Amino acid sequence: MIVISDVINTLAIFWLSALIFYILVHRGLWIFSDVARTMGMFMLEKALGPGIELVEGRTGSAARAWILQSVLWMMIGALFTFEGMWLAHEPTALHSLSAWGYDPTAETLAATGKAVTTFGGISMALVGCGLHILPKLLGTGLASERNATLVSFLYSGGIFVYLVGSHDPVILGIKVLVIGTGIHVLAMTAIVINQLLTVSNRSGSIPIPAWLILLGLMAESFNLIASISTGGINEGDGQWLMYRLQGSGFIFLSLAGVVLYASSVGSGNPLWSKTLVGATLLGGLFTLNPFGANHGTLVADLFGLDAAELSMASNDTVILSFLMALASMPIIAFVANAMLTIRDSSSSSTAGMSEINLGLMAMIPVFIGSLFVQTDTVSGTDAISGLSWPIEEMSRWAVMVPLSLGSVLALYPSITGRELASAERSRTAFWLMGPAVLLGLMLSLTSSAIDMALLDAGVEDPSSLSHELSVAASVIFYFAVVAMILHCLNMVSGLFRGEIVGEDTEVSSSIEADTYNLASATSVSRIL
After folding, report:
1. Which distant-in-sequence residues (6+ apart) come within 8 Å of 120 by Cβ?
2. Most CB atoms within 10 A, among 40, 234, 252, 485?
3. Cβ(416)–Cβ(64) under 8 Å?
4. What is the C-alpha to C-alpha distance for residues 108 and 112, in angstroms, rounded to an integer?
5. Three-state SS across 340-365?
6. Beta-carbon neighbour count of residue 157 at 10 Å?
């Protein structure tokens, strides 16, 4: 008798959910009849009562709200990451704040930096760009600009709860991170409904780059359905897999769709290969991305569960290692397609292109390092687990942050109708951020490698070289904090002092979309 593990069952349900969703959308989302659309719009706007009147409903207002808050959270995430790196070699650096009741550890600050940067900075940037890109590619408007704008503040409230919960997981007997997860799910549900209503109003077929954004947005729901239905969310293997599926689904697919569109907009070139876009889409869905942590502790914390130990069967180890290695195909396809799209040297002057280039160049080397760490973990060897933290931070700050931030900067004129306040400030921020991220984290990786080698050799005395490299890494990474402050100020100032983009100068993607007439309103009697 063949026993199928929960890991395989989770993967099968995830893939089946994606396939069913694709078929439904391909058939025209028949579940979204005129009645369902009207009810959906009622839930997004009228059901909120007077609260919906607090925000404007102008075209692009939702995307603008999301991207501006995303860069703010990136700035805060960089600050907490730097503080975590500094306290790792100087634990008493913030000791004076203990008189105010604030006495964090390096691990606490590092965890806060991860949560704020990933959920606040990167995720909000991807959602915000998606709110702008998907309607453009579908030839229609966003179903509800006002709801998406209002939800951005709800989502930021959830990120603030994550920030508090990372410092103090339990307050008055309540698990704080679970509250943040509830807010996150509620906000993302509203965004999903909003985008599905937008898709139901489309004028024609869905371009492949739009599929990347749409399936990336839905992947989080598929992940929850698959992990909860199999019970894997309570197991160490399932928690690790849920983390991987989130990275492969929502993060990678959304990031690929947004970056490819932004590359076309920023360079003025058509996408180099639509076939590679399809390879990126299929590969992102049916492989496991190794970027990120080598454990599922974060998943357990977000859902208020006990972090279980990772103990995989040999068959699961082989299958998951193969799927992670196979992820090299969509990653190479994505990197090659984006880099060849922006191959024109004239695109280097466009804001955001330098950041996108930085993320693309770092993606494959960081992928290789992440693959070694994850394979070492699932096999139970744990020979290089000491390198997991710097490689995880590299995947975040050398790959995902530059790609998402670069896309935001490239699309900023199209979303806001204004240029950035200062092109010179944008270039300065890039030259501060690039070396700070690459050199600072490389020194941190070298320091961790020295510590790991001494530990394996049984040497008890700490290495002075390792300590000096750790200090240098922290000092250099501080320039990334300064860079994010400059980017944040530049984007906010651009709303008031940036040059207005005229209709004749506004850039657009090479992916054309036909015009579309909205469906007629539904009467009350038909709803009843």
Report:
1. 69, 70, 73, 74, 76, 77, 156, 159, 162
2. 252
3. yes
4. 6
5. HHCCCHHHHHCCCHHHHHHHHHHHHH
6. 15
Contacts of 427 (CB under 8 A, 6+ apart): 354
Distance CA 34, CA 522 (A): 6
SS3 content of the chain, % helix, strand, coil (to 5): 75, 0, 25
Buried-exposed string 314-348: b where 16+ CB fall within 10 A, e elsewhere: eebbebbbebbeebbebbbbbbbbbbebbeeeebe
Tell me the per-residue pLDDT of 458-513, one tens digit each, with 9 for 90 and over: 776 666 888 888 899 999 999 999 999 999 999 999 888 878 876 544 444 545 44
List, for residues 64-97, the tens digit of each pLDDT value. 999 999 999 999 999 999 999 998 888 877 777 7
Q: Which two tokens stand for residue 330?
A: 């969509």
Write the DSSP symbol of residue 418.
B
The conformation of residue 306, written as its DSSP 8-state character, comes to -
The pLDDT score that the predictor gives to residue 295 is 85
What is the spatial distance between Cα 197 and Cα 468, in angstroms, rounded to a whole number? 55
pTM value? 0.90
d(CA 201, CA 199): 5
Low-confidence ranges of the chain (pLDDT < 70): 1-4, 28-55, 57, 344-349, 460-463, 502-528
How high is the pLDDT of residue 172?
82
